[in-house]
Design a protein that fits this description.
27% helix, alpha+beta, 6-stranded mixed β-sheet, rod-shaped, 4 helices
């Protein structure tokens, strides 16, 4: 019987632990490295480089806020035209928007009634003149007979009175004829001045009464720019400001105007006041109804003008960064803003003349941080 020989490998020996002096050495080195790193970070924080910003020295300046409003071009003079006699409108010759010259016929009413009155007045005049002729002849006969002693004084006075009554009848008939002719001329409605028809209230065939408005005409000449202005703006505006009028559709068309009329009452619906600005020598490019922009400057006030980049906030209120001239450290200070204009912030309160304000780079700052100045402006 054979036997199987087996062999077993001897287990490997465990690692030899480090000696105590080596362990202490490694721990000491690690602690030294940590201390060195912490010291370096603290020194880097203490030696933080200043932020380069732009600053501006605070100085008071005159600020005149400008107000711009939209209005329309309107005629300075609007006339309501009407017939002076009543009747049926036989013809309408013009329409809204049409330009008419002075004396142009705008409409006619049926003249049949007026022509009949004219014929009747003419007949009355003819009859009165015939009676006057007869009375004058009788007067001359009585005058001749009285000089010859063949008539009485009473008959002569009677003939004289009859002639005077006949003369009065002729005068009355002539006046009635003139009135009839004038009434016939009133059947044509004519323009009293050159202008543009802005409204009409009748059509051919309609019966109108005397003095009933038929057309409204905007007379040629200087125009007005009409604006609806808030009451507070009217109170803050100088008494006689110069107003720059600009055509909304073409800013190249401009004109200067003066306030001509301010409504004494406030419109209850809009809470505004109607202001009319007279425009002398109105440009041809500003027709009636054109939309315009009126710009006026208010009374100048003392304020500080800063670029909008200088504005920041603290506790939810407007503020700016102020630079300490000795330490170059920055801190925020609250301000009161008077207005926001094109590219600038108008500061009313919170700053004093001579202070240095950060105008660019403020978004990189924190309170107490030192800065380096890249540029300054007044």
């Amino acid at each position: 019987m054979s036997s199987i020989a087996t062999s077993s490998a001897s287990p490997s020996s465990p690692p030899r632990p480090l000696s105590r002096p080596n362990t202490l050495l490694l721990l000491a080195c690690a602690a030294a490295a940590l201390l060195t790193s912490g010291c370096q970070k603290q020194q880097a924080a203490e030696k933080k480089l200043p932020v380069t910003v732009s600053t501006q020295t605070v100085a008071l300046a005159d600020y005149a806020p400008r107000t711009s409003l939209t209005g329309v071009i309107a005629a300075r003079t609007l006339n309501n035209l009407s017939f002076r006699v009543g009747g049926r409108v036989a013809e309408r010759l013009v329409d809204v928007g049409q330009h008419v010259d002075q004396g142009a016929v705008l409409a006619r009413i049926d003249p049949q009634e007026q022509e009949s009155d004219l014929r009747s007045a003419q007949a009355d005049l003819d009859a009165a003149q015939a009676q006057l002729t007869q009375a004058a002849a009788a007067y001359q006969r009585q005058k001749t007979l009285l000089s010859q002693g063949f008539t009485t004084r009473r008959d002569f006075d009677s003939a004289d009175q009859t002639m005077k009554v006949a003369q009065g009848s002729v005068d009355a008939a002539q006046s009635a004829l003139a009135n009839a002719k004038e009434n016939l001329s009133y059947t044509e409605l004519k323009a009293g001045a050159a202008g543009v028809i802005t409204a009409r209230q009748v059509e051919a065939g309609q019966v109108v009464q005397a003095a009933q408005t038929v057309f409204t005409i905007a007379e040629d000449g200087d125009r007005d720019a009409v604006f609806n202005v808030q009451e507070t703006l009217v109170a803050q505006t100088p008494s006689s400001p110069a107003v720059t009028i600009t055509l909304l559709s073409d800013p190249q068309v401009k004109a200067m105007g003066k306030v001509r009329e301010i409504s004494p009452a406030v419109d209850t619906a809009s809470g505004s006041i109607r202001v009319k600005v007279g425009i002398a020598d109105t440009p041809a490019g500003m027709p009636l109804g054109a939309a315009v922009i009126g710009t006026v400057s208010a009374r100048p006030v003392k304020a500080v003008l800063l670029p909008w980049q200088a504005l920041t906030s603290t506790a939810g209120k407007p503020a700016v960064w102020i630079v300490d001239p000795s330490t170059k450290a920055v801190a925020t200070t609250p301000i009161e803003v008077l207005a926001f204009d094109s590219g600038v912030v108008v500061v009313d309160k919170g700053l004093e003349a001579g202070q240095s304000v950060v105008t660019a780079g403020g978004q990189l700052l924190s309170p107490g941080q030192t800065i380096a100045t890249a540029g300054a402006g007044q």
